[in-house]
Backbone:
C-alpha cells in the first residue's frame, strides 16, 4: 500500500519563536500565533516577504516598508487570510501604508534572535488590513528543527513512504529545511494557504492509497479534514485547542509518534 505523509513546517517539524509588533502602539507580542492576528478581522492577511533577512538589517530604520519593497523589487505573497484576498488587493494595502517602517521589522528580528540563540532560519512577514489599507503588525518567525525531525523523515523514507512539506513559508526558508531533513525540493510546497494545503492533500490522494496530514494550527484544518488521517501535533505548545482537537483524528505530543501511526495504518490495510 502506498502511503504519503504531508507535514506542515512551523510548529510541526520546527520549534518556532514568533514576535509581532503593533505598529500603532509599539507593543511587542511574544509567542504570538500569526493566524490569530489574521483572524481578528475578515479582511486581514499574512504576507510573506521573499527576502533574505540579512538584507533588512542594513536598511535605513525610518524607511517605509512599502518603499523598501518597491525600491528593491521584493515580492510578497498572501500566505494566510480569513476571507479570500487577492494578491493585487493585498499589495495595494501595503503600498498605501504610511506607518510601518524598516525599524519595526528590525525590532522584531532582534527580539526573535534574542529568544532563539541557535536559530535555524529567520522569516519576516506583514499583517495587512484591507479595510484601512494599512500594515497594523509586522511579524518575525525564527526557529530550529526539532531534534528528531531528521530521523523521523529518514525512517519514513526507508519505509518507502512519500514525504511532503506544505507550508505558508517561502521557498527561501523551506529549501534550507528540506535540505536539513532530506526532503527533495519537488516534494516541498511553498506559500501554502489553507485552501492550497487542502488541494495538495486531495491531489496526493489520487496518487497514494492513504494520505496523512500532520499540522499544528488552524491553517491546517482544511488539510486535516481532507486527509485519510488528520494528525495534530502539539509538540510546540503542549496544548490542544478544542477546535483543532475536534478536527484531528489523532493528537501527538512528539513527531516521532508518526512512525507508529504509519506502521499501524500499513498493518491495518494488509
Residues:
Amino acid at each position: 500500500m502506498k502511503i504519503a505523509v504531508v507535514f506542515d513546517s512551523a510548529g510541526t517539524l520546527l520549534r518556532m519563536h514568533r514576535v509581532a509588533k503593533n505598529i500603532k502602539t509599539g507593543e511587542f507580542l511574544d509567542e504570538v500565533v500569526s493566524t490569530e492576528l489574521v483572524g481578528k478581522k475578515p479582511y486581514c492577511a499574512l504576507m510573506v516577504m521573499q527576502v533574505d533577512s540579512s538584507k533588512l538589517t542594513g536598511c535605513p530604520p525610518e524607511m517605509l516598508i512599502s518603499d523598501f519593497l518597491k525600491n528593491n523589487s521584493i515580492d510578497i505573497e498572501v500566505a494566510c487570510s480569513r476571507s479570500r484576498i487577492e494578491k493585487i488587493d493585498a499589495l495595494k494595502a501595503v503600498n498605501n501604508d504610511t506607518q510601518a517602517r524598516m525599524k519595526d521589522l528590525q525590532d522584531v528580528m532582534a527580539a526573535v534572535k534574542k529568544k532563539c540563540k541557535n536559530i535555524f532560519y529567520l522569516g519576516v512577514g506583514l499583517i495587512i488590513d484591507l479595510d484601512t489599507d494599512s500594515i497594523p503588525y509586522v511579524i518575525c518567525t525564527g526557529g530550529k528543527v526539532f531534534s528528531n525531525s531528521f530521523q523521523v523523515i529518514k525512517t519514513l523514507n526507508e519505509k518507502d513512504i512519500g514525504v511532503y512539506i506544505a507550508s505558508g513559508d517561502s521557498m527561501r526558508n523551506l529549501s534550507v529545511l528540506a535540505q536539513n531533513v532530506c526532503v527533495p525540493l519537488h516534494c516541498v510546497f511553498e506559500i501554502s494557504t489553507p485552501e492550497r494545503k487542502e488541494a495538495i492533500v486531495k491531489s496526493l490522494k489520487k496518487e497514494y492509497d492513504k494520505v496523512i496530514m500532520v499540522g499544528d494550527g488552524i491553517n491546517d484544518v482544511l488539510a486535516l479534514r481532507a486527509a485519510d488521517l488528520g494528525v495534530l501535533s502539539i509538540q510546540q505548545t503542549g496544548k490542544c485547542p478544542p477546535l483543532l482537537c475536534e478536527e484531528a483524528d489523532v493528537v501527538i505530543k512528539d513527531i516521532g509518534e508518526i512512525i507508529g501511526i504509519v506502521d499501524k495504518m500499513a498493518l491495518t490495510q494488509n
Q: What stands out?
A: The chain has eleven helices and twelve strands. The first strand starts at residue 3 and ends at 7. The chain has two domains: 3-13+144-269, 17-143. The two ends are 8 Å apart (CA to CA).
